[in-house]
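Sequence design from tokenized structure. All designs in this work follow the same two-part layout: the structure record, then the generated sequence. An example of the structure record is given first.
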């Protein structure tokens, strides 16, 4: 693919400006990480939401419009609109919840050791939001063109965005581009993501004394064993499909034929045809012992994010700008999903993984780099102004 025409942008000057504000960025990140925001704690999420909104307004000023959509049993979603110098709204997606429970900071405190930043949520994805905000600051300070921005902040991404999905989709419908400041993958941006299916199977059998009357019962656990074997056989690595039975439970006592069993199933697919194939197999599955009944709940949590020509063009634009910083920006397809999947399914061009450079998402060695924050904030600034003048 040919590199799109990009107006002359002094990316090095943007990088120098961001680098001169490294200490400010780290101060912001420190305050943000020290405010723990686990997905399942509404009080902590509310405090995190309020801090993030006040911080964004402190760094970027009051938005032209702001609305908060209640999340009910989950974290709220806040949408902030900022005017730009050119037409064509760019949506920035960033979640403020993390997988880490309250108290993690006592074990994994925020630290900066040389180039390495550690702390719960620093890589996924608090550093990314800090980078996005400072990218906008850099453009404003430089007096460069900036597209209208819609910043969408949700507090339920780590649990599948059950409350925020319709708000994200509504916010992205008219977007000229969608940037997701999730963490990078080894420095690479993400141009394709798999779709995710989350299914729950409930089996109901017939209880009986396993020793005195072994044929009277119908074991839900035995049926579950069949399900595990048959469902995992649906995996097709060549097609990018994985089926994992990750959680199982069942039975009451070892001498009782199990009257119930449950399974939690995770499915990842790279295209819709595979999604249809796996769903047909799961919904059509029946235990060999017809006395055991099966009920399948759940469905597709996130659609496939396919690498379209429009997404490829966004990547080539970012790659050309990164080259001016001496960065050989790479792209990748990943098995994990994000809120970018929702936008891509609407036909919007999405560039994901624009956030932190580091590693260890959801792991105790989670970390980001200072140099990566500076580089990616400068790159994001250059990318945004290139979209404004495209």
């Amino acid at each position: 693919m040919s590199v799109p025409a990009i107006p002359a942008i002094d990316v090095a000057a943007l990088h120098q400006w961001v680098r001169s504000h490294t200490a400010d960025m780290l101060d912001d990140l420190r305050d943000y990480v020290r405010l723990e925001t686990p997905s399942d704690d509404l009080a902590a999420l509310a405090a995190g939401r309020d801090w993030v909104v006040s911080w964004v307004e402190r760094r970027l000023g009051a938005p032209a419009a702001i609305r908060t959509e209640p999340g009910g049993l989950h974290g709220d979603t806040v949408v902030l609109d900022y005017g730009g110098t050119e037409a064509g709204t760019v949506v920035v997606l960033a979640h403020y919840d993390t997988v880490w429970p309250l108290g993690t900071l006592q074990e994994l405190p925020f630290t900066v050791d040389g180039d390495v930043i550690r702390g719960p949520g620093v890589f996924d994805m608090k550093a990314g939001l800090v980078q996005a905000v400072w990218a906008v600051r850099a453009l404003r300070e430089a007096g460069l063109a900036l597209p209208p921005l819609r910043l969408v902040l949700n507090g339920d991404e780590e649990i599948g965005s059950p409350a925020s999905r319709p708000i994200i989709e509504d916010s992205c419908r008219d977007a000229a581009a969608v940037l997701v400041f999730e963490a990078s993958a080894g420095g690479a941006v993400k141009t394709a993501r798999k779709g995710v299916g989350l299914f729950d199977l409930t089996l109901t059998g017939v209880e009986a004394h396993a020793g005195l009357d072994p044929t009277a019962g119908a074991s839900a656990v035995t049926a579950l064993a069949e399900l595990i074997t048959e469902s995992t056989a649906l995996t097709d690595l060549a097609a990018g499909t994985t089926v994992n039975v990750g959680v199982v439970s069942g039975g009451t006592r070892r001498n009782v034929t199990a009257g119930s069993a449950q399974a939690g199933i995770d499915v990842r697919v790279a295209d819709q045809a595979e999604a249809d194939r796996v769903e047909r197999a799961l919904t059509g599955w029946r235990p060999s012992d017809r006395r055991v009944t099966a009920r399948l709940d759940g469905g597709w949590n996130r659609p496939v994010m396919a690498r379209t020509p429009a997404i490829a063009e966004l990547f080539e634009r970012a790659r050309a700008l990164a080259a001016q910083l001496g960065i050989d920006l790479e792209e990748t397809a990943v098995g994990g999903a994000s809120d970018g999947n929702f936008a891509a399914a609407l036909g919007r061009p999405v560039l994901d993984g624009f956030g932190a450079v580091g590693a260890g998402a959801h792991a105790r060695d989670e970390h980001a780099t200072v140099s990566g924050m500076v580089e990616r904030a400068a790159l994001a600034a250059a990318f945004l102004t290139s979209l404004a003048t495209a």
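The first strand starts at residue 65 and ends at 69. We note this feature because it recurs in several other targets discussed in the main text.
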